[in-house]
């Protein structure tokens, strides 16, 4: 019998009644095709991350009408136990990933109490990766599996809402989605990627969190509590 945990996770997400499930990605069979492809890798012995129950967690925790800020990542951490379905969020037991350490240094100096970004998601920060799955030890393994269409549609859907939102676009891949955003109604804050490998070093000092909060407050919205 073929094991289909991703298809099962997709079915549970649909059954949850999430408004995100109304996106074309979920309505025209694209989601099923991606799930089938990922499940085929699992059936062949690949260790797919995160746990199936966390694949759609970013969408589950931050419904469309609650989004205040959008942060886009690439794909989950490829080390078992590190990812929990939210872009950049870390729940492992080792040192913080290098990019996350740089990100949190912009929030406050010193060592953060946690790398788990769930509190951000619960406040309306959509932490969405371009690929919702990855394979252990193989960063980027599922970037071409079709997940990117979901990310594009989610960004466009938030942009189309009447409510304002701030989009924090870090690095070339995220910044490429600026064309999907109505920059006159929403706040678009672009910078280089927080990775230490970014030679331009144009993320440190860019203050994306303070700028986003200031913009939200001018629209009468409560700021995000970024400190963990």
TrEMBL record:
<protein>
    <recommendedName>
        <fullName>Uracil-DNA glycosylase</fullName>
        <ecNumber>3.2.2.27</ecNumber>
    </recommendedName>
</protein>
<feature type="domain" description="Uracil-DNA glycosylase-like">
    <location>
        <begin position="60"/>
        <end position="216"/>
    </location>
</feature>
<dbReference type="InterPro" id="IPR002043">
    <property type="entry name" value="UDG_fam1"/>
</dbReference>
<comment type="similarity">
    <text>Belongs to the uracil-DNA glycosylase (UDG) superfamily. UNG family.</text>
</comment>
<dbReference type="Pfam" id="PF03167">
    <property type="entry name" value="UDG"/>
</dbReference>
<comment type="function">
    <text>Excises uracil residues from the DNA which can arise as a result of misincorporation of dUMP residues by DNA polymerase or due to deamination of cytosine.</text>
</comment>
<dbReference type="InterPro" id="IPR005122">
    <property type="entry name" value="Uracil-DNA_glycosylase-like"/>
</dbReference>
<keyword id="KW-0227">DNA damage</keyword>
<dbReference type="InterPro" id="IPR036895">
    <property type="entry name" value="Uracil-DNA_glycosylase-like_sf"/>
</dbReference>
<feature type="active site" description="Proton acceptor">
    <location>
        <position position="75"/>
    </location>
</feature>
<keyword id="KW-0378">Hydrolase</keyword>
<dbReference type="GO" id="GO:0005737">
    <property type="term" value="C:cytoplasm"/>
</dbReference>
<keyword id="KW-0234">DNA repair</keyword>
<keyword id="KW-0963">Cytoplasm</keyword>
<dbReference type="GO" id="GO:0097510">
    <property type="term" value="P:base-excision repair, AP site formation via deaminated base removal"/>
</dbReference>
<dbReference type="InterPro" id="IPR018085">
    <property type="entry name" value="Ura-DNA_Glyclase_AS"/>
</dbReference>
<dbReference type="GO" id="GO:0004844">
    <property type="term" value="F:uracil DNA N-glycosylase activity"/>
</dbReference>
